[in-house]
């Protein structure tokens, strides 16, 4: 089974119809605590996917850069948080996606993003 990027997920009609039970099942599969995930958070994820739908890589990287700069400024983003995110997300990615994620993380940590 191949992994999907944001554009593919949005194109998949079922991706926008994710139930709370499905989110919990996926979280459990990856040994993540999903007990605190609320329906509003699931809807927020759907809105985030929609926000980035159709954007090319340059646009996505620009948005990422702005978010990181703001997060570093207000203290809501740290390298430790990035490492935690990568640790949680990496098992869900294929080798190419993991390499891309690691490359982006390295750029972030070197303040090139």
Mean pLDDT reading: 80
Question: What is the total number of structural domains?
Answer: 2
Portion in beta strands: under 5%
Number of helical segments?
Answer: 6
Distance between the termini: 31 Å
Low-confidence stretches: none
Biggest pleated sheet:
none
Binned, the helix content reads 55-70%
What is the molecular shape? globular
Number of strands: 0
Query: What is the CA-atom radius of gyration, in angstroms?
Result: 15 Å
Structural class: mainly alpha
Run of helices and strands: HHHHHH
Structure characterization notes:
The protein has 113 residues and is an all-alpha fold. It has two domains: 1-54, no CATH class; 55-113, no CATH class. It is 65% helix and 0% strand. It is built from six helices and no strands. The chain has helices at residues 6-11, 20-29, 39-52, 57-74, 79-89, 95-109. Helix 5 (79-89) packs antiparallel against helix 6 (95-109). The longest helix is centred in the middle third of the chain and has 18 residues, at 57-74. It is globular. The N and C termini lie far apart (31 Å).
